[in-house]
Write a structure and sequence with these properties.
alpha/beta, seven-stranded mixed β-sheet, two-stranded antiparallel ribbon
């Protein structure tokens, strides 16, 4: 019956819908999530419920966030009249615009176009969750786990590894999906660092943006650009205004930046 349901659905490209159909891959992902009977599981993009049905008996509750009302209707039909029906709560809408509820574990076959903003929404979510097991496009997963010196090391690598431990769990070929995506996929496990590093993340991310704005530029060149100097000058004056700090009359932000770069050996 369920295969007939799937055959009757036209998958929407704009939602990045690629249903994971291989039961062995699904089971492996669920096993790696190590779900406990007391857990609330957040599932992003449950689709027709192949993964949901493997998890529902293992946990206390599933919160399923799905943007496509047709998929929600199919999954509701699938569990109707079964004990699973009372254990699944649906959130219909765009996960990036949704206030996430409390959850212990997040499991998702991610729509690949929202991967980056979702990772940071997840990592800044409070209270802390235990772990997330997520399917991503292979190259995106490689960026998450890249180390300094790797070709793919980038702002995403720095920020994710600042806030979490990230591990590559398994590769998943495109033929395990319906319809098959154009790219290969990987499953990663993300475990937030508790407590998090004592930083203002927005300020830190602003710094990292400048560092990675041109990958082959030196730090000195990045910070000496006029656009960055102007931004730093503006931000400093706002900071002083908000905190009632007098701005020195002869304040020269460019000279200050050059001084710091020279002292730290990055000039």
């Amino acid at each position: 019956v369920h295969s007939q349901i799937q055959q009757g659905i036209h998958f929407k490209k704009e939602y990045g819908q690629h249903i994971l159909k291989n039961p062995l891959v699904i089971q492996s992902i669920v096993d790696k999530a190590a779900i406990r009977p007391t857990d609330t599981v957040l599932e992003i993009g449950p689709g027709t419920g192949n993964m949901t049905m493997k998890m529902v008996d293992k946990c206390k509750k599933i919160v399923a966030c799905e943007v496509d009302v047709r998929m929600v209707a199919e999954l509701q039909k699938r569990v109707q009249g079964t004990p699973a029906a009372s254990k699944i709560q649906f959130i219909v809408g765009d996960v990036l615009k949704t206030d996430l509820p409390y959850f212990d574990i997040c499991v998702a076959n991610m729509p690949y176009q929202i991967s980056s903003p979702f990772v940071f929404k997840l990592l800044l979510h409070r209270p802390f969750f235990r772990c997330a097991v997520l399917m991503f496009q292979r190259e995106f997963a490689q960026r998450l786990i890249a180390k300094p010196g790797d070709k793919l090391y980038c702002r995403l690598s720095v920020n994710t590894q600042l806030l979490a431990r990230v591990d590559h769990l398994m590769k998943v070929g495109k033929n395990n999906f319906k319809p098959p995506p154009q790219v290969e996929s990987s499953v990663v496990r993300i475990e937030p660092k508790v407590p998090p590093p004592p930083i203002n993340f927005q300020e830190w991310d602003g710094l990292v943006r400048i560092v990675f704005v041109r990958k082959n530029k030196t730090l000195g060149a990045g910070f000496k650009s006029q656009a960055v100097i102007d931004m730093l000058d503006k931000n400093y004056r706002i900071h002083c205004s908000v905190n009632s700090i007098p701005v020195p009359v002869d304040m020269d932000i460019k000279a200050k930046v050059l001084e710091i770069l020279t002292e730290s050996g990055y000039s």
